[in-house]
Amino acid sequence: MKYALLLYDTEGEGPEFGTPEMDAEMQQWFDYTEALEAAGRHLGGEALNPTATATTVRVRDGKTITADGPFAETKETLGGFYLIEADDLDEAIEWAAKIPIAPHGSVEIRPIMEIPG
Amino acid sequence: MLLHETGSLELAEDAVSEAFVEASVRWRTAGAPRRPGAWLLTTARRKAIDQIRRSRRFEDRLPQLVDDPPEHRGETLGDEQLALIAGCAHPALDAEAQVALTLRYVCGLTTDQIARSFMVPSETMKKRLTRAKHKISAAGVPFEVPPHDRLADRLAAICGVIYAVFSEGYASSVGPDLVRGSLCDEAVWLSELLCDLAPDDAEVHALAGLILLTDARRAARIDDDGLPVLLEDQDRSTWDRSKIDRGLARLARSETLGRVGPYFLLGSIAGLHAHARSIDDTPWARIAGLYGALIALNDTPVLRLNQAAAVAWSEGPITGLTLIDELGDRLVDYPYFHSSRAALLARAGQPVAAAAAYDRAIELTDNDAERRWMVHRRAAVLTADRRSVRPVEAGHETSQDRRNVDSHQS
């Protein structure tokens, strides 16, 4: 099965760029992604720029309405995602628990909808 | 007769021989029952039903839950049963759904029966089960024997579900009936089944011990008017000795497995009550100590309330009241806080304060039988019939306690 692992965390609480702490954190992400790839479970994934750069778009009565900011103002925001292959939810949970933000943020596991046919 | 009911000669013979084995053990200790033939048949019928539930019903359960049941899910029937229970009690499912799925697919109750047990409309229960089944299939909830490194955690989750079933049956927090026996029966059955499936887990055996020892008091716990009977007022000769013996054996087995968890501590408290001939013969200081050990594992105000009730028996109502009053901030909306306080105030010779505390408890409880009982107690306090006023059952584990215990199981 395919799962999206959606990574939520509080923005702006991580280490500054260029610091040794940041380098160490980046290494954790590289290691994690490499482990996913080595296991043949990595289908994709990206980190997102902060919500300050977000634009929300709606079309109402044929008109496109744009607004500054994310869809919902929440303390923890969507900061990135992985797309993985796993045998079942237990395996997806295992991979989610190893993501570097799991100890302070949250990982939402969403199964990818299979469209029949 | 049994052959006709079970439809299997082998099953009927097995059941009868098991009934004879049980008779040879029980009749030696408890004496022969008044109608031994009827006793044997009842026991054999129970054993046969147990057999059927343990084997045949499982075969067709999994395909009802999963579109494509895995081939390799287990080597033996026991593995298949464990896989089914582990899936129904998967922590990724909603807690109420875990209970409903377990009763529906492990115990084989109908959706209507489960709805009635939880006093919700059938339609609500049907939706709950449908939603859960949809998640199982869409999210890929596995129905497999949990791998070794996760087994203890998953067994703890299963224990939590079984305990929730028992709590709901034994001390239901809503509705007119105080004890909904069929849920207690299902919990006893599930907890003993889990002992067979996971024979090396200390807490699994402890849970079965706790449930059996508590359930042994079921008949004594409610009077003819459906009102609760306090531990000190219960007719201990009506406690179910067979369940006590089974419960104590489970606790002893748990002890040999080494790990001391919350179910073992709660079970040990129930075991001390089972051994005691009367309320005064009860080792209250030891019980207070066991609550202390539970509090060390998971400090909750409800456990502290139970500990205070035990201390009140060993050291007197004033000491108990001092401990209880420290919990006031955290338990202000908890009915048993006020009823426990009321009982101790009455024992300490303060009937007016006791009546006021009962008023608060009456306001807060949503169980009809308990409300009627508290009204009755309040009246007894004010008529100054001091002898009938005794503190609330110490170790009176409410469903709230159980949830608190469960909360550190994960």
Provide a short characterization of the protein structure.
Chain A is α+β, with helices and mostly antiparallel strands and 117 residues long. Helices cover 24% and strands 37% of the residues of chain A.
Give me some keywords for this one.
heterodimer, A: alpha+beta, Alpha-Beta Plaits, 4-stranded antiparallel sheet, 24% helix, 37% strand, flat, B: 410 residues, mainly alpha, Serine Threonine Protein Phosphatase 5, Tetratricopeptide repeat, 3 domains, 21 helices, 68% helix
Structural class of chain B: mainly alpha
- Any idea what the CATH superfamily of chain A is called? Dimeric alpha+beta barrel
Average pLDDT of chain A, rounded to a whole number, is 94
* Strand coverage percent of chain A: 35-45%
What oligomeric assembly is this protein in?
Answer: heterodimer
Work out the radius of gyration of chain B. Answer: 22 Å
Overall tally of structural domains of chain B: 3
Question: For the terminal residues of chain A, how far apart are their CA atoms?
Answer: 16 Å
- Sequence of secondary-structure elements of chain B: HHHHHHHHHHHHHHHHHHHHH
Overall shape of chain A: it is flat
- Biggest chain pair interface: A-B, 12 and 10 residues
Task: Give helix % range of chain B.
Answer: 55-70%
Q: Which spans of chain A have pLDDT < 50 for at least 5 consecutive residues?
A: none
Contiguous helical run count of chain B? 21
